[in-house]
Write a structure and sequence with these properties.
This protein has 393 residues and is of the alpha/beta class. The protein has eleven helices and 19 strands. 38% of the residues are buried.
């Protein structure tokens, strides 16, 4: 980095005193200093200071290209900060960064928590439901929140979902002279006196939390009966074999239960659904699990709705498959993509048998029975058999 025009500086609540010599030198030489109003005050930026636009937009920094410029961010700018957003628009020789201790590091050190065993998440502009997949008994979580009201709202949210007996800490102005920490339980929340808490730490206690295994209970999902039932869903997800970062096409998504569990495993999903009311169920379910950023919804029918979208790693077709749909989907997906299709009708079963002969893969017939009342006794009540075809292109 011979002469970068942009310096990204992490600053803590101790202000200039906590900065390195290189950071202070960059500040002294900068023509323009961008940051939040609190950052600009801590750095004494005076007339050179430019507050961030709300919502954040990197364009204002890019207009200063070639001129000595500083961007200030809290703690480590590359951990829930502006660093990554800015670097994506810049060549490697245009910028240099001087991070400070992150809020997560400071909070963990105050609590005596091992940071590698602590979940760290930013909730400045994200719904509290992002915590749903993370909460389990004993889990330690540090959340960045916007203000005192957000900390109180988070405590109330935890109570409403059965986590009211957790231990909760509100930590403010960490690393500075106004540092403050208060502990309580969510169900007896005590608001912090500081105006801007930096973090809320949670040691979870209460309900069990979500299972990490495939096949969540059907009653966790909003649906109208059009749902891949729990045992079948578990077998479908086993065949789909989700991996972090992979993209799924969920064709005929119904309630979106497959998409939700796929996203819980670390992937992203595009859920295709022809009916508006069922698309609303998918949206509700994705939001309830904190996965609305990972599950996209397309209202339309396959194959017409598929052609303009990014190609998937995996496709699930839960019903409605016919020869024309298969030919269209097969032509769109890349080599090595996985496809799993289910059938409950004789006609589609015959189609899957023919496709398996032509393209290979595994054909599985699933027959399940559940104990149910029969007069004064019980008997096995059989569900319709499901035929599953899984194949790699």
């Amino acid at each position: 980095m011979s002469d970068p025009w942009l310096t990204i500086i992490g600053i803590g609540d101790d202000g200039l005193a906590g900065l390195s010599e290189a950071s202070r030198k960059a500040l002294a030489n900068a023509e323009t200093v961008f940051g939040g109003e609190r950052h600009l005050k801590l750095a004494g930026a005076d007339g050179r200071g430019k507050p961030w636009p709300v919502p954040f937009d990197a364009a204002c920094v890019l207009t200063r290209r070639g001129h000595p410029t500083v961007v200030l961010a809290s703690g480590d700018p590359f951990w829930h900060g502006a660093g990554g957003s800015l670097a994506a628009h810049l060549a490697p020789d245009e910028w240099i960064a001087h991070p400070a201790l992150s809020t997560f590091s400071l909070a963990a050190s105050r609590l005596g928590w091992q940071l590698e065993n602590t979940i760290c998440i930013g909730l400045h502009a994200a719904p509290f439901e992002r915590l749903v997949p993370l909460l389990s008994r004993g889990a330690r979580i540090i959340c960045l929140v916007r203000d005192v009201k957000a900390a109180g709202d988070l405590a109330q949210w935890l109570v409403g979902r059965g986590w009211g007996v957790s231990r909760l800490w509100t930590l403010s102005a960490l690393g500075g002279p106004r540092e403050h920490m208060i502990e309580c339980r969510p169900d007896s929340y005590v608001a912090a006196s500081a105006a801007s808490p930096v973090a809320v730490a949670i040691e979870a206690g209460g309900v069990a939390g979500l299972s990490r295994a495939s096949g969540l209970a059907d009653d966790l999902f909003q649906h109208d009966g059009q749902i891949t039932k729990r045992p079948i869903r578990a077998l479908a997800l086993s065949a789909l074999a989700p991996r972090p970062g992979e993209k799924l096409w969920d064709v005929g998504a119904g309630s979106g239960s497959i998409s939700v569990e796929w996203a819980l495993a670390g992937g992203t999903s595009i859920a295709f659904e022809a009916r508006e009311d069922r698309a609303a169920h998918i949206r509700t379910n994705a939001e309830a699990f904190g996965l609305s950023h990972k599950v996209s919804i397309v209202i339309g029918t396959a194959p017409a709705a598929l052609s303009s979208l990014d190609r998937p790693d995996v496709v699930f077709i839960g019903g409605g498959l016919d020869a024309a749909m298969f030919d269209a989907v097969w032509s769109l997906i890349p080599q090595d993509a996985r496809l799993v299709a289910h059938s409950v009708t004789l006609e589609t079963e015959a189609l899957l048998a023919g496709l398996q002969r032509k393209h290979g893969g595994d054909l599985l017939r699933i027959e399940l029975s559940q104990a149910a009342a029969l007069g004064r006794y019980r008997s096995w009540e059989a569900a319709r058999p499901v035929v599953q075809w899984s194949v790699v292109k």
